[in-house]
Design a protein that fits this description.
By secondary structure, the protein is mainly beta. The chain is about 15% helix and about 60% strand. The protein has 2 helices and 10 strands.
Length: about 160
């Protein structure tokens, strides 16, 4: 293969490495809005999502145990420049700095976000339904591959 064609092929492959999404793709996340709850051994886990505008959703996640409420995470879903990002700020982690996960693909009603440079998780999958919200976080750790599922119910 001639060097010019090889270079062109590599450049084109790079263009498709970062998926482009539309406002209509972002709008499909509307099922997230509302209050979601999940009972765990450590109390009730609550995730509340609201739509701020056509390009931004925000959430707060907290745990309720024996009458005490503890903040777990603040998150945003952002649409900008054809990219959709999940931005998480987790209490007592990453020096309270936000961590960005890029939407890599949409499969049906499942949204797959990834950040290969993050320690854990490296992948976050959101699968919102009408009455249920399934979230899975996963990635490689020092102890091996780890996957943590969350199964919320709409309240």
């Amino acid at each position: 293969m001639k060097p010019f064609r090889l270079l062109l092929l590599l450049l084109c492959a790079g263009c498709f490495a970062n998926a482009q999404f539309s406002h209509s793709d972002f709008a499909r996340l509307k099922n997230l809005t509302g209050r979601w709850e999940m009972q765990t051994a450590k109390g009730k886990l609550v995730e509340e999502w609201s739509k701020l505008n056509d390009s931004l959703f925000q959430s707060t996640s907290y745990r309720v145990q024996k009458g005490d409420t503890t903040l777990e995470e603040k998150a945003e879903l952002r649409f900008s420049g054809g990219r959709i990002s999940f931005v998480a700020t987790v209490a007592n982690q990453n020096d309270e700095q936000p961590v960005v996960f890029a939407l890599k693909k949409i499969e049906g009603n499942q949204f797959v976000f990834e950040n290969a440079a993050h320690d854990f998780p490296k992948k976050i999958i959101y699968h919102p339904g009408d009455r249920t919200l399934d979230v899975t976080i996963s990635g490689q750790t020092a102890a091996g591959f780890r996957e943590v599922p969350f199964h919320f119910q709409r309240k």
